[in-house]
Each structure stands twice: as structure tokens, then as C-alpha cells.
């Protein structure tokens, strides 16, 4: 169920991980179409999310590129733990309103159409707004099989900007 669009660690954040489609190098000469609904959505693990998150894999490892993508939907008030990415991360907000924060910086509000680039090694979190759900596409690349380094949980005080 693709709507109007994190990640190796505990579960490689299922986004760039579970049941995702791998494209073999011999497909480089023609298009590959993954049909809507061919890949199972998974619930984000509570070890790295504080609430209900659904991850819908889109793709994984196109040819020799270790890049993957997923729709990630956060219910209101739900967010990721602090984390970093070895090759950075692109988020494209597709629905709702969300929040993101880089360590030591103020919380930023993100809306549909916003594109967030988080450089390699930058500690951050992202998730839904306080009263709104949010969906984004997550795109990230792996290094030595890992595309995320999960850190500590975001405290309630941090999430609320206190």
C-alpha cells in the first residue's frame, strides 16, 4: 500500500532491511518493477522506536549499489531513537507532519514535500508530530552491511524540546 513516500541495527531498521527486494547485477539492461503489495510491511521494533511504526520496504541493493529505501509511517507521538548513518540518509516526507532533530540543535518541523539530508555520522532522530502521524521515504546506503548505528532512546523531555 504505497501512499501519496532507516537501516541496519536491531533489525537493520527493517526499512532498508526485511524482505526487501535485491536486484541482481544482470538486471542492469532492463527495468525491474516490484508490484505494490509484493513485499510485506513490518512493525518497527520497540528497541529503536517508542511506539507504533510501520515499515514498508521499497527496494534494496540495486545492481552493485548498497542502497535501500522504504516508506516509514509513524503514529502520532512516535519517533526513532537517536542514530547515525555511515553514508548519510535522505528522508522525503510524503504525508502528515513530523519532527526531526540533530544532536545539540533545535527540533525542526517537517511537512509533505520536504526533503531532509542527514550527512554521515550526524546524530539525529525523526518521527511524527505530537498529534499527527507522519510518513516519509527513507533512503540510505550501507557500509559493510550496516546502514544505521542505533544509539540511546530519545527522552520525553528531548522529544518535547525541553
TrEMBL record:
Statement: the UniProt record of this protein carries the keyword Signal: yes
Asked whether the keyword Signal is assigned, the reply is: yes
Q: State the organism of origin.
A: Megamonas hypermegale
Keywords associated with the record: Signal
Which Pfam families does the record cross-reference, listed alphabetically? Cupin_2 (PF07883)
Highest taxon of the source?
Bacteria
Q: What is this protein called?
A: Cupin domain-containing protein
Which InterPro entries would you find in this protein's record? Cupin_2, HNL-like_cupin, RmlC-like_jellyroll, RmlC_Cupin_sf
**Stretch forming the signal peptide:** 1-24
Record-annotated membrane-spanning stretches: none
Residues covered by the Cupin type-2 domain: 71-132
Q: Which CDD domains match?
A: cupin_HNL-like
Amino acid at each position: 500500500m504505497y501512499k501519496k513516500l532507516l537501516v541496519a541495527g536491531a533489525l537493520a531498521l527493517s526499512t532498508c532491511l526485511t524482505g526487501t527486494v535485491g536486484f541482481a547485477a544482470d538486471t542492469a539492461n532492463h527495468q525491474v518493477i516490484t508490484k505494490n503489495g509484493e513485499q510485506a510491511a513490518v512493525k518497527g521494533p520497540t528497541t529503536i522506536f517508542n511506539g507504533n511504526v510501520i515499515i514498508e520496504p521499497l527496494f534494496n541493493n540495486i545492481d552493485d549499489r548498497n542502497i535501500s529505501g522504504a516508506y516509514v509511517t509513524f503514529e502520532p507521538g512516535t519517533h526513532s531513537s537517536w542514530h547515525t548513518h555511515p553514508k548519510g540518509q535522505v528522508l522525503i516526507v510524503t504525508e502528515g507532519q513530523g519532527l526531526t532533530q540533530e544532536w545539540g540543535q533545535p527540533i525542526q518541523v517537517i511537512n509533505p514535500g520536504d526533503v531532509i539530508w542527514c550527512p554521515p555520522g550526524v546524530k539525529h532522530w525523526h518521527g511524527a508530530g505530537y498529534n499527527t502521524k507522519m510518513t516519509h521515504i527513507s533512503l540510505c546506503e550501507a557500509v559493510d552491511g550496516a546502514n544505521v548505528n542505533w544509539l540511546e532512546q530519545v527522552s520525553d523531555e528531548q522529544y518535547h524540546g525541553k
